[in-house]
Design goal:
The chain is mainly α. It contains 7 helices and no strands. It has a single domain, classed as Arp2/3 complex 21 kDa subunit ARPC3 (Orthogonal Bundle).
């Protein structure tokens, strides 16, 4: 039987992950109500990824994946845009995998939170373009240069906010 301390710690971790997932979902929904960064281009800042990156920065890999998956699965269902799931899920998985690959460089202080975030944003857009090419056609490749360039300021914004949160909200407070 598990000790009460480990049970309390597991409960705290579950609640923290759920809270971060809820905040990510709320931000994603709010951001969807705003116009795109550039009219005609399907690019947003991706502010919901702040919480995924925050969990990764605290080396909570499974929690970061759970936050990302919950956000991608639940927001399209709750908002009624279920087709968005087709684009969000591959983007989130590729972005998470890419940031996970760079995480050892972050831990060695060779890459910062902004670098992780820009790489994740670029991979997110690349996956969405791939899905778009598969479902809509090769005309989606016309968006590639713009989405690639816009992933840089989007990743910088998300990375800076996550880095600030990491310094202001220590992991000991949450997990």
């Amino acid at each position: 039987m598990a000790s009460p301390i480990s049970s309390a710690a597991r409960t705290r971790r579950l609640v923290t992950t759920a809270l971060l997932a809820c905040m990510a979902m709320a931000l994603q929904y709010l951001e969807s109500l705003l116009p795109p960064l550039v009219p005609g281009l399907p690019v947003r800042l991706g502010l919901a990824n702040i919480f995924v990156l925050y969990a990764l920065l605290h080396n909570k890999k499974p929690d970061a994946l759970a936050i990302s998956l919950l956000r991608c699965l639940l927001v399209p269902i709750f908002s009624g845009a279920v087709s968005g799931l087709l684009y969000a899920l591959p983007g989130a998985l590729l972005s998470y995998a890419g940031m996970l690959l760079l995480l050892p460089l972050y831990q060695k202080e060779r890459v910062g939170a902004v670098g992780l975030s820009v790489f994740g944003a670029f991979l997110y857009n690349a996956a969405q373009l791939g899905v778009g090419c598969f479902t809509i056609g090769r005309a989606m490749l016309l968006y590639a240069p713009w989405m690639g360039l816009l992933s840089i300021p989007a990743g910088i914004c998300t990375g800076l906010i996550a880095a600030i949160l990491k310094t202001r909200i220590p992991s000991s407070f949450l997990w």
